[in-house]
Amino acid sequence: MSRTGRPAATARPAGTPPLSPAVRTGLWVVLVVMVGVALAVGATRGPGPATVQQRAAALDAVIRCPSCDGISVAQSSASTAQAIRQTVLARLRGGQSPQQVEAYLVSRYGPGILLRPPVGGGTAWVWVLPPVAVAGAAAGLGAVLWRRRRRHEAEVSEEDRALVELALARRAGATTEPGP
Amino acid sequence: MTLVDTEDADPAAAGRPRRGHTARWIAAAVAVVGAALVVLLATRPPEAATEVDTPLVGQRAPALDGPTLAGGSFHLASLRGRWVVLNFFASWCPPCQQEEPDLVAFAYAHRAPTAAALVGVVFNDSAAAAHAFMRSEGATWPAVVDGGGQIALAYGVVGPPETFIVAPDGTVVVHLDGPVTASELDHWLARARQGTA
């Protein structure tokens, strides 16, 4: 408690020394680097499922059933979906990569055969916008926190402190002592 | 003044006829719209084929080899040098049933050995049902059995009927979705011939 009877704004439990600005900045840097590495690893993860059946299943899940409404060939029992599933499996077994199988289907049905929008052209914003929005939000949050921290760290001169204490003492005196 | 007094005295009596008129007008409007809808649907022309811009147009036609409903075998490559009309169909598909008489007429008009050849491809149908359907309609052109739907997939077929016109050099020049008529096929053939001339 301070002399004014109010709890100090910067009161800290005993035994926990304050972190220096350098240490705090270092912790933030470590956190940002860890998140960045995790995102990079997740985005560039290896070839995916190991077996041909697993790779076929993963591919089936992103190929649109051409004779259905918005579902994948993995979810449909339509004859066209069955034919595509057979083709996917046969081509993967034949040594083609998932990208080659996708390219074959696109050469037959057009890019609409893929459930995920292709990168580029008019659909590029679908891929670009979310990371940009996240980066913008993170930058905004960082700026707000930084400014708030700077505001809290503003230096108070001894003269200002004395003025405030004098004003508080006068106010306390006015409330306890009756007027003339 | 008298009129105002009367309305003030009995507002319900003055409002009732107006509400009745409104209801009558609404009922009449609904009846007119309903009648127009019935007339529109009754006089609507039958479903027609539309040209589809698929990736296969302008590309070499995928290989088409397989057994026919008549028990023979078919190879698209054997028709190189002739215009070919490929028709994916099924006996259970109403638009296919709609277009079949026109296909019969088209096949008859193009019966000369060097004229455009009509070839059917069975889409998701049993060979017996497809064969019975063709015989009942008097269709005599070869129809290929597409076991597993791999031919339909190679041509990017979504659902029957779909029709492709293949140029004498083996290039797909037209992809039509929906039931075709004999005159439409002649029109598209003539246009394709002009385009490749």
What does this structure look like?
- The complex is a heterodimer of chains A (about 180) and B (about 200).
- Chain A is mainly alpha-helical and about 180 residues long.
- Among the domains of chain A are: about 50-115, Cytochrome C biogenesis protein (Helicase, Ruva Protein, domain 3, Orthogonal Bundle); about 120-155.
- Chain A is built from six helices and no strands.
- Chain A has helices spanning about 20-45, 50-60, 80-95, 100-110, 125-150, 160-175.
- In chain A, helix 2 packs antiparallel against helix 3.
- With about 200 residues, chain B is α/β, with parallel strands linked by helices.
- Chain B folds into two domains: about 1-40; about 50-195, Glutaredoxin.
- Chain B contains six helices and eight strands.
- In chain B, helix 1 crosses helix 2 and helix 3 crosses helix 6 (about 180-195).
- Chain B is elongated, with a radius of gyration of 28 Å.
- The model of chain B is unreliable at about 1-10 (pLDDT under 50).
- The interface between A and B is medium-sized, with 14 and 17 residues.
What's the level 1 CATH class of the domain at 52-116 in chain A? Answer: Mainly Alpha
Order of helices and strands of chain A: HHHHHH
Beta strand % of chain B: 15-25%
Structural class of chain B: alpha/beta
Main sheet summary of chain A = none
Task: Bin the helical content of chain A.
Answer: 55-70%
| Strand elements of chain B, count | 8
> Approximately how much beta-strand content do the residues of chain A carry?
under 5%
**Mean residue pLDDT of chain A:** 83
Distance between the termini of chain B: 88 Å
And the CATH topology of the largest domain in chain B? Glutaredoxin
What sequence of helices (H) and strands (E) makes up the elements of chain B? HHEEEEHEHEHEEH
Helical amount of chain B? 40-55%
The number of domains of chain B is: 2
